[in-house]
Design goal:
4-stranded antiparallel β-sheet; DNA-binding; 10 strands; alpha+beta; 8 helices; homodimer; about 230 residues
DNA sequence: CGGTTGTTTGAACTGATTCAATCTGTGTGG
DNA sequence: CCACACAGATTGAATCAGTTCAAACAACCG
């Protein structure tokens, strides 16, 4: 795996990466935190095979304040001990745990390139979320989150079963669940989506994208020519 | 520069990195964009020797929507062509431009480790800004920004000449300049700072930190045991 | 079926925006 | 050294998006 071969092609999937790295597979369900704040061991990496994990920061009680989502095929690399983040599955998840990522990279030095690029993608996503929170109104925020979930979660532009509660969507977009509810209803009234229970059908994806100012470029792992 | 020697110690400064990498030095003044959106060449890296750069995203006119700051000793690594960001100095800046970071990393493979860690630090900062925008009230946002500038800019906890206009602080914290002004006045009235023109004196750093919920851990480049 | 979790709706409230005007500091040219 | 121009800072008044609080309703699960 020389880096000359890596550049300009898509990032390898988690499963491709894992072929080279010692790991163990586990399954977990939602509602229990997987790693509490401060409990993430210094050098552990998590590769998500199935499901969705959230990275959150607690300010007081509860798991409010979701900073990032990680979908199947993505990963959570070690943060270092100074970062006080918790990790919780949003839905049932199957994970591959790499107990010592340092050693793995030591054994396969070209992995550092890949993890660098993964980190850069995460940075780009965090910045997009920052724009969401800082600049867009709540309608655009919710619309943007829907678009991102549809794409990153691999559900496509037709329909999906939202994997989040309205409270979780509020935790992500920095609002109250009350307002998330009202905004979802408003988007539905505008004819862009149809909802029944957790199912969401995208009736007008183009308009939803426009409302969200959703430019999926930031999700492209292929940072060609990094 | 073996990575075994890198881990657990602070990130090398820009100038230390540059010893190994071909680069050119330039100086620029504020008010002109250094790189417009979409104009950042695919593989160029910027190391800031002096001054402060902002990374912004334009939504319409003007340089609103500042996503990140980079201070002296920090760097802007290539984003890939899909990210539409602009770069502008906040104050006079002296930069080292590395035209082809790929080649540099190819020549010194252990650099990938370092850039990986730099990206992770940037990710942590972006997430802290996300918390700021999504969860803290405007007083805390401004206080947090002041703390971060004081530390990252190397000004210390005594006093500094703020390198930003109130409009820029608004662009960073997702507010209006009007409100930034009011909040600054309120913080001053509370006796935490004293202002005259651009000079800010920190009268009660501890209380300012508390108000901001500022935990500088996220700034530590030393992600020991990554 | 009962308990729990999540969703929906209403009414009152408030922090921040918007718009607009004024004030202050700094730099420039005469 | 003054007059002017311009960028930035400050203040006020009206408005509004989103919160808060509270209560009812629906879906899910053992």
């Amino acid at each position: 795996m020389k880096h000359e071969q890596i550049r300009g092609i898509p990032l390898p999937s988690a499963s491709e990466l894992l072929a080279d790295i010692p790991h163990q597979i586990i399954e977990i369900g939602p509602r229990r935190a997987f790693r509490e704040a401060g409990q993430m061991s210094g050098n552990e990496a998590i590769f998500i095979l199935e499901g969705i994990l959230s990275i959150y920061k607690t300010d007081g009680i509860g798991g409010r304040n979701i900073l990032a989502l990680r979908f199947a095929g993505e990963s959570i690399l070690p943060h270092g001990p100074t970062l006080d983040l918790g990790i919780k599955p949003m839905i049932d998840a199957r994970l591959a745990l790499v107990p010592d990522l340092d050693r793995a990279v030591g054994d396969h030095p070209d992995l550092a390139w890949i993890f660098w690029r993964i980190s850069q993608r995460n940075e780009a996503i965090a910045q997009e979320w920052l724009i969401n929170a800082a600049r867009r109104d709540t309608k655009a925020r919710i619309a943007h989150l829907l678009c991102e979930i549809a794409i990153r979660g691999g559900y496509g532009e037709e329909k999906m079963a939202i994997p989040l509660t309205q409270q979780q969507m509020a935790d992500i977009t920095g609002q109250t669940s009350v307002n998330v509810n009202r905004v979802l209803a408003e988007i539905e009234r505008a004819g862009l989506i149809r909802r029944q229970n957790r199912q969401i059908e995208f009736l007008d994806w183009a308009e939803l994208r426009r409302m969200a100012a959703f430019q999926p470029g930031y999700l492209e792992a292929d940072l060609a020519g990094i």
